[in-house]
Here is the input.
Amino acid sequence: QKEVEQDPGPLSVPEGAIVSLNCTYSNSAFQYFMWYRQYSRKGPELLMYTYSSGNKEDGRFTAQVDKSSKYISLFIRDSQPSDSATYLCAMSEGSNYQLIWGAGTKLIIKP
Amino acid sequence: IAGITQAPTSQILAAGRRMTLRCTQDMRHNAMYWYRQDLGLGLRLIHYSNTAGTTGKGEVPDGYSVSRANTDDFPLTLASAVPSQTSVYFCASTEGWRMNEKLFFGSGTQLSVL
Here is the structure.
């Protein structure tokens, strides 16, 4: 069993829909949670960074961490075709620990 | 602003050949990393360097070597390539040395070993 599980998709939704992307994990020591967005043939770029539990909002994006369930989510409101990309979750126990990555979910926003 | 530059963009390599993937950053970041990305497996850390002159092993270091002679350059060498090293390779950097900092990635090198 992988430490971090992520549905590979693709997830296809119409423009304007609310998108929910999720990762589950097994290591209860993870404290730092990140979402990266990766466009085709490009490197990932950081989208959201969360420490411990709770919600964090940035524009149309909301990151949610539920440590009790070992589950993190990324919500995208008013989705746009430009949001079409692969979304990677990553998590870490702390500053001296390597990031552990999910395999990514491919998201397609249909105009 | 260039950020991280990787070369080549893609390469087809015969098994057994030696290959060096180049990575240069212009952000004066302290730490640099090499990852490989394979379908269904996510990113896996190969080697890293917290500062010039030091390197460390990641999750999948076998068959790869790195050097960090200066702040800006972090080449990855495959001494004798094997087909299982077919992958997309990403170089990345962080401003500080903490592994959970924001990563800045290059655009990747698609490597096929035949």
In short: The interface with chain B takes residues 4, 6, 8, 32, 36, 41-46, 49, 88, 90, 92, 94-99, 101-104 of chain A (CB under 8 Å).
